[in-house]
Amino acid sequence: MATSAAAEKLHAIWHDRPGLAGWASTVDHKRIGMRYLHTGMLFLVAGGIESLLIRMQLADAQLDILDPETYNQIFTMHGITMMFLFAMPVLSGFGNYFVPLMIGARDMAFPRLNAFGYWVFLASGIFMYSSFLIGRAPNAGWFNYPPLADADFAPGLNIDFYTLGLIFMGISTTGGAINFIVTILKMRAPGMTLNRIPIFVWGELAMSFQIVFALPALALANVMLQLERRFGFHFFSQGDGGDPLLWQHLFWIFGHPEVYIIALPAFGIVSAIVPTWSRRRIVGYTWIVVAELATALIGFGVWVHHMFATGIPQITLSFISLASFMIAIPSGVQVFAWLATLIAGRPVLRTPMLYVLGFIVTFVIGGVTGVMFASVPFDQQVHDSMFVVAHLHYVLVGGALFPIFGALYHWLPKMTGRMLSEGLGKLSFWLTFVGFNLSMFPLHILGLLGQPRRTYTYQEGLGWEPYNLISTIGTFILAAGLLVTFYNWYASLRRGAPAGDDPWRGETLEWATSSPPPHHNFDHIPTVRSREPSWDQPELAGGAQPVEEGGHPLTDGHITLSTSVLDARPQAVVHMPHSTPWPLYLTVALAILFTGMLVSSVGVIAVGAVAGTVALFGWFWPRGETQES
Amino acid sequence: MPGVANVPGRPSAIGRIGAPRRLRVLLGLSFFLLASCSGQLSALDPAGPGAARIARLWWLLFWVATVAFASVLGLIAFALRRARRDVTPDIDTEPVAWGDRFIGIAGVAVPVVILLGGFVYSLDQMNALATGDADDPGLEIEIVAHNWWWEVRYPNGAVTANEIHIPTGERIRLRLTTADVIHSFWVPRLQAKMDHVPGLENEMWLQADEPGTYRGQCAEFCGLQHAHMAFFVEAQPPGDFQAWYDGQASVASEPEDPSAERGLVVFLSSSCVGCHAIGGTEATATTGPDLTHLASRRTLFAGRLPNTRQNLESIIVDPQHVKPGVGMPPTEMGAADLAALLDYLEALD
User: Which of A36, A255, A265, B246 is found 20 to 30 A from A617 (Cα to Cα)?
Assistant: First the structure.
């Protein structure tokens, strides 16, 4: 595509330096998004291996594949990995890659913060996984309840890896969320009014607001726990006024919204796939957007349903029970809007659509069992049993993993410029779908048969063996399904057919530019006149909307447009920061700082703090770049 | 699955340990759904009014959920009637006139009615499960959870471990506390669970309608041996219970033969005495389970092993092999001393 003079000029302005320097200093949202995706998938492999180990250990009663300590470390890291190191980063990765493209911007609002977010995510993931090297991975569950996580009962470094690692990671997540909010509200192409924002972008926005309000509770709780472990504070330990339930409140005020932090962008993916693959504009756009925002809000009012068995007063349980019943409604609204679109359209039964259908089936099962937990007496019966394990995997694997894999088949041709194999895609879907249901459906029955969760083994003769064996077999089939997609991805890079700009004839702006898109995304920043611009504005094709139709070449520097929040009227030409390695250096300094706190070394902490200060100066040092034009 | 409740004559927990495993796996597979309601810990095989109420609630939730799920499946099947295999450039741009009405009715109106109904019904069930204590104070038992066993204290001074005897047909009040971390008390066939939280004293009630043994276990992750923290509720006819209750309040029986006498001396002169109490002797420590009536119990190590002489020996000699991480240290002693000690412990009925 880069043939016109404007395109060549833009390429010269926006491209990265070649080689290692370019690799370490890029702030291109597409490269960063791809990094999130690659790294998140590597962590999916790690978390998947952990789940295979867990299921091997539980395949039969009294097996001895993992000793109890190793088992506790593995199941704890499985939870942390899948939530924080796989689902959130991968969904952030798709957001990083596609939000600027979908809203017609040249980059995120804060490109350097964006690069910093990725490096910190990577460093904190390595930080937490390095605990395995000394055999001291976190071992008190991803929920990490004191007093089990206190120094009295967990004297090693295990829990310090958890608390410090999550505080470290929170820097990345919070920065990323603020970046999404500003980008979505201020960087949209002219004409992309609020009611023309693609639903995927709404999903990332709702997720980001949830992160900004939920993450502080987690960070605060971890700071308090670290003070308690290292300096003898008594926030959570009994005596001196400490209360172990305080941790549970703080953790779940974060922890329940966390479910929606993962689900909302995944729902956004579904809302991106459904119209393209039904050949229909989405039915109920406003319903879906309102439902996403309602979920983000009500999601903060249901945390106590994780604590129904702790002896909390009945009146509190009643309120939370009502909120927990009601939060099903916005999810239901979205399911029925997707169904309406499918019914009104003509669904194309190819891999992305299969993953969406698989998502609806599994997520609805997770949804109806979720409603059951809103009922206090039933929750108190099956709480902390395998029934909950089944439920949460139907919600998170159904609600996030299936959309993510559907998104790979939908968007990888755009990202890599290469088509994937449809046959392997279908094979992967069916293995994943059948394997998942085999692995998790029997756990509903096991929970009703009284098998508690988080046990490294179980007694013989309780009638649990056959269901556990089926679950283990299913997990291996599921793993095979995921591997087929990884192979398909790899093979497409080697010998996939060229995708062209718009292989699926999609409705959103990313399909109007080349595959993969150029560094500057669009030769001309478009003026948008429709909710489905690529369907309704044929002049957008090629990424260079003619100037007389409203295209903005903006070739006079490293610049993009900023527009008003509600109706996206152009307001300013913004100079974007250039690529820089300082975010990487600051991350290294922070890693030194957190390692110092881990090993309680004042010297190492001082080195990290000084290095961090230097890195901040380097990052913000004025370099005489033009400020306004 | 419904209607399989209350299978009488269930074999005890101990009797089932050791049946040929492969056979059971095959049988289990063939009865995948049919057999799924029964089991020693099946919440769907209630043996008391608490669990029975929740089991009824479950079946209601189950059928509502099944209908909702089937409706979605039906709509998907309907949507796929026009499914095709390839992307075509044409887009159907005609507005969907029925879209808002469909989402409003199927996605909001109907769910609101169902969910509000579910909320009101389950609130009613919650109240029914919570109240009813006033009319019958009944027996009150204190359960202290430990890493990884259960201490059971009766009002008459009887102290036992991992076994809770109750009279049938009576509402028993439990006071739940913990000596260390958070645990959770769960007997699925009798009642929903309740946590033992440090610094709190939670209460719940328990009632068994029929005599029998009801297995329970810790449900809150509590560290290395969370897996092996089981207990048994032994429901007895009131007369039998009273006899047991009075017997448990008595001090330990005196050793009757020379070997058992020597065993008592061994016990008092070994590290055992540092953690365990035996009523009527100098052993009064409370770190580990009270052993006054050890021989009357079904299991050792909180359900880990049946209470046999051989198993007792193995947990004295090498407890870390049986239950890695358990607080009990291994004890080295001569064969004669060990035999005497076992003779003594086996006579503590």
Answer: A36
Half-sphere exposure of A49 (CA within 13 A, CB side): 5
Rounded to an integer, what distance in angstroms lies between the CA atom of residue A455 and that of residue A90?
Answer: 30
- pLDDT, tens only, B141-197: 999 999 999 999 999 999 999 999 999 999 999 999 999 999 999 999 999 999 999
B-interface mutation test, from A455, A501, A504, A507, most B Cβ less than 10 A away: A455
Helix A386-396 / helix A244-278 crossing angle, nearest 10 deg: 40
Distance, in angstroms, between A385 CA and closest chain B CA?
7
Q: What is the pLDDT of residue B17?
A: 40
At B347, list the tokens: 């006579």
Question: A2 falls in which pLDDT band (50, 70, 90)?
Answer: very low
**pLDDT attached to residue B3:** 34
pTM of the model: 0.94
Q: How far is CA B145 from the centre of its chain?
A: 13
Residue B185: strand pairing partners: B194, B218
CA distance A144 to A165: 13
Domain covering B136-248 in this structure, CATH number: 2.60.40.420
DSSP string, A312-380: --HHHHHHHHHHHHHTHHHHHHHHHHHHHHHHHS--B-SHHHHHHHHHHHHHHHHHHHHHHHHSHHHHH
A549 in B contact zone (CB under 8 Å): no
The reply to whether residue A321 touches residue B122, judged by beta carbons under 8 angstroms, is yes
Other C-beta atoms lying within 10 Å of the C-beta of residue A613: 12
Residue A564: strand pairing partners? none
CA distance A62 to A48: 23
Q: How many residues does chain B have?
A: 349
Buried b (16+ CB within 10 A) or exposed e, B6-42: eeeebeebbebeeeeeeebeeebeeeeeebbbbbbbb
Nearest to B123 among A281, A321, A383 (CB): A321
- Does the domain at B258-346 match CATH 3.30.390.50? Answer given as no
Calpha distance A85→A90 (Å, rounded): 8
**CA dist., res. B145 & res. B49, Å (int):** 25
Bridge-partner residues for A316, per DSSP?
none
> CB-based contacts of A387: which residues, under 8 Å, 6+ apart?
A369, A443, A444, A446, A447, A448
Exposed/middle/buried for A240, CB within 10 Å: 0-12, 13-18, 19+? exposed
* Residue A353 and residue A420 in contact, taking contact as beta carbons nearer than 8 Å: no
Give yes or no for residue A118 having a pLDDT over 60: yes
- pLDDT by residue for chain B (349 residues), tens digit each? 333 333 333 444 333 444 455 555 555 554 554 445 678 899 999 999 999 999 999 999 999 999 999 999 999 999 999 888 877 778 887 888 999 999 999 999 999 999 999 999 999 999 988 865 556 668 999 999 999 999 999 999 999 999 999 999 999 999 999 999 999 999 999 999 999 999 999 999 999 999 999 999 999 999 999 999 999 999 999 999 999 999 999 999 899 899 999 999 999 999 999 999 999 999 999 999 999 999 999 999 999 999 999 999 999 999 999 999 999 999 999 999 999 999 999 999 8
Q: Where in chain B is the domain with CATH 2.60.40.420?
A: 136-248, 258-346
CA dist A83 and A75 (Å) reads: 12
Q: CB of A85 within 8 Å of any CB in chain B?
A: no
DSSP three-state, residue A73: helix
Using a CB-CB cut-off of 8 Å, the residues of chain A touching B107 are: 287, 329, 332-337
Q: Do B25 and A466 touch (CB under 8 A)?
A: yes
Q: How far apart are CA A106 and CA A111, in angstroms?
A: 10
* B96 vs B87: CA distance, rounded Å: 21
Rounded-to-integer distance, Cα A431 and Cα B238, Å: 56
